[in-house]
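Ticket reopened. Same input as before:
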Amino acid sequence: MRVLTLLEAVTDGLRAEMAADSTVVVFGQDVGVEGGVFRATAGLQKAFGESRCFDTPLVESGIVGAAIGMAVAGLKPVVEIQFSGFALAAFNQIANHAARIRNRTRGSLTAPMVIRTPYGGGIRAPEHHSESMEAIFGHTPGLKVVVPSTPHDAKGLLISAIRDPDPVIFLEPARAYRAVRQQVPEQPYAIAIGKARIEETGTELTLVSYGAQMMEARQARAALAAEGRSVELIDLRTIYPFDAATVVDSVRKTGRLLVVHEGPQSFGVASEIIATVLDKAYDALEAPPARLTGPDVIVPLPRGEKHYLISAQQVAAEARKVLSYEP
Amino acid sequence: MGMFECFDPRQGKMLCLLDESGTLHAPPEGFPLMSDEQALSAYRAMILARAADEWALSLNRQGRMPTYALNEGQEANSVGALMALNSDDWFVPAFRELGGMLMRGLTLAQYYLYWYGNEEGSRLSPEKFHMMPVSIPVGSQMVHAVGIAWAERYKGTDRVVATFMGEGATSEGDFHEACNLAAVWNAGVIFYVQNNHWAISLPWEKQSASPTVAEKGFAYGFEGVRVDGNDIFAVYAAVKAAAERARRGEGPTLIEGLTYRLGAHTTSDDPTRYRADEDVKRWRERDPVLRLERYLLDREILTSEDMRAIREECVGWARESFEEVEKTADPTLEDAFRYLYHEIPPILQEQLDRRKQ
Amino acid sequence: MSHDPAVHEFRFPDIGEGLTEGRVVEVRVACGQRVRQGDALAVVETDKVVTEIPSPFDGVIVELPVTAGAVIRVGEVVALIRNAAAQAAPEAEHSASVVGKLDSAAGGLLPPSTEGLVPEVTAAAAVAAPVTPPPAVSPAVNGNGNGAAAVRATPLARRIAGDAGIDLSTVQGTGPGGRILKRDLPDKPVGGALRQKLSTLRTAIAVAMEKSQAIPAAAVHDWTVVDDLLSLRKAMNQELREKLGLLAFFIKAAAEALRKFPLLNSIYFPEKREYESHPTPNIGVAVDTEEGLVVPVIRDADGLTVSGIQAELTRLTARARSRHLTLEEIRGGTFTISNFGSFSGVFGNPMILPPQVGILGVGRIHEMAVAKDGVVSPASVLPLSLVVDHRLIDGVYACKFLARFMELISQPAPLAQTQPGAP
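Engineering reply: fixed in the latest deploy. New output:
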């Protein structure tokens, strides 16, 4: 056991699976020699050689397309798209092929592969580097979409993603890469995709979030606990297929729901969770289910980012509103 | 220099062995020649492909077959190419390679089933076929081919990959991406472009300002060659040579098969709206089947009677195949849900259960 | 890779232009030396340039693998530097390649988890911090004080109940799983134990009955044979278009009897201990409606023939049932008849309607064996229950009134007079 950042846990997971399975190959832009612009693949080329971890030309679409071919031919490619916003350039391959080939060929040809990509704002980067794409991927049938928020989860979920027979989009919260640290076991372990995690139990309000936003959710929960309010904090971990049962059971217990995420409001993940909760736990609700999300705007450049990101204070304030709602 | 240097497309050269009169010329040094047995086999495949197309068109007009892409005039490209590959070399088609798919062992019934509108038509066991399904997004399959080639090399096999596309696909970004990646990775890919002169209604002259497709290969660092796509011997020779080169680890090749789409783009297209009959007539004289028939007759490999019999057999085969298709059960509700993931996740199962109520 | 989180590997960067390696011309620092960000660590010559390689941060040189004259490839370690800040992640901050800035402080150190690990490992790796416990299933505490959490009601039903002050735990839900819906709430009752407010009429009745309770009432019960009355009615009805009911005869008889016993036709004022004997009988008739009992009054009943009484009775009953009675039609009664016997009940104790002082209850007509002059034979009998306000009316007076009434009923010929006026 040693304390790792979320980023290091990703590297750890990659290393574990590359060691265990020789069909796992890691490639993408700058992942080999440099070890990735965030250093997520640091040391892998040195450890496993250029045939296992290598740099590609600058071509997101080609990277994903080639990975599809490799996966069809029996390998397990784990590619990196440098920033989730650039995944759009590869969307034709992702949505039209990776997500579809199993269905297209009635399961005779499949594309077991992982696309890793940092997402989200708060890293003071240039345009296009701070997008939240999880809803777009979640809305594409045939993909699995995973977002860890802790180092322990990052390693376990990445290992699961690599072992998964379906294409997995593995979104890594850039803002949390080095900000969150935790003891991470040395040996490999898998955390199931499709299962949320109740980080803290509570009785009055169900607070659901994922990814980098969990940092603010944790702070808000703690602040409310200091005020004597009992908030159940759930880390969604998987966007598709999301763990409706855990969320619904929690809302049945607490009667109140607040979903918080960074990505834009309209047609976002919170809408899906709320619709599901209304469907299954309507009569258990004490207050209308609420969402606190980013606005439907382009993520501002660094100077204006403060208007976009959601703070712990905002989460706590919204939670208080939901807690004090009277019909 | 390159193996194709005497056929440098930049100098206007094109590889042609069997001319329109049916006369076979000796291939250049080091180029493989198709045997008579192979020629006969190829002929049968081409006739079956043609009969299949004719019947499909008729079925479409009868309202029994939805939109279907026609192969007429282009049969030699995929038939000749597949003849030159090993049975476990990968075949990554676009959607106008019926002849090649038949060569690969796909039944006509299964081919029809796909166009009939049932995904079972694309159920392709990789060990049996080493073939990707029809690819509808134009040009998007080429990068898959590159990945497959890379994987085969990684696994230590000597399998090569032949991927097909039309000249229209060379305008897509994916063509560039695939060529570049293949070159950088030295992948064993044969890029076979069927330049049939028409991307639906857009003629080749308006598709690209480049005189040929073949010469584009040089920009990526590999060779391109133009062959007469209606000459099955030339197609065979070029693909065989390219495959051997790829197998030796010498990387990709771009082959442009110059051919002509005698029929419509699909059964929903009316080419009389955008092209002249004289053009079509002229190309009918270059029909690959016609050419091969002349050769086979001259060499007394087949008689006219034989040809008639083969044709009848193929026509019957086409009808029988479609009858089989019409008897096939339609996909079920569960089928629409079963193949999204390895295991259906709860959220999807619930959606299925609701539909069933 | 060093496990000391403060020590960073500084690798020879790709300074561009396809650089893959360089030759170290000069090493400018030594082990143990403190450097500042930007200080030149070494000078490297490449195909294109001779360049200084600057330190990316402040710190102390821990290790220095490079030597002058050696060839160094891109990615190889130039130096190991202990970062002065000693907090950030072990990987070198490679400013030339990293896009964006990562914050080391924000998230903090999380408690460990053992999820996904196999059991033996979990035991071996036990540390101070406990495993996240499974969610406790505890009864929910609802925030809006609507009683036990088990009450399932739609938000709309909750709102209505809240507005109306209805305790949901007393409401039976008819929705799926016993969910309380809007329709289950009192405005539209669907059966079961409901608490509802009294309607206006009911309230009036309740108030009147409470007042009636204060009257010292005395009751006397008797019965009389009505065979002759029944025959008379039958005969009269043969000729009449508007059929006569028995109640009309009872009203007529009561009106007649009250003329002889006017004390019973009085209004009593208990606070003043005064009474007012009314000149004419205004007979109130208890009529049952959907909403409750109403008592329209047949005024000056003694001046009406039985037919006239019947006509008025018909009219008032219809108006009562259609809720069209005016105040005039229910005020001013001096005596009331309650014909409860049409359903069941032989004798009863009807309640006097204050400020009246008497009420005659008429029970169920039935056949009985009646003895007369020692001979028993069947006869139809009419049970009667007279209740009087004993403050004004004594028992004897009441009985005499009742005797007169019974006489008129059992020998009804005088009731049939077509001309109003005393027999």
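Chain A touches chain B through 46 residues (CB under 8 Å). Chain A has eleven helices and 14 strands. Please confirm and we'll close it.
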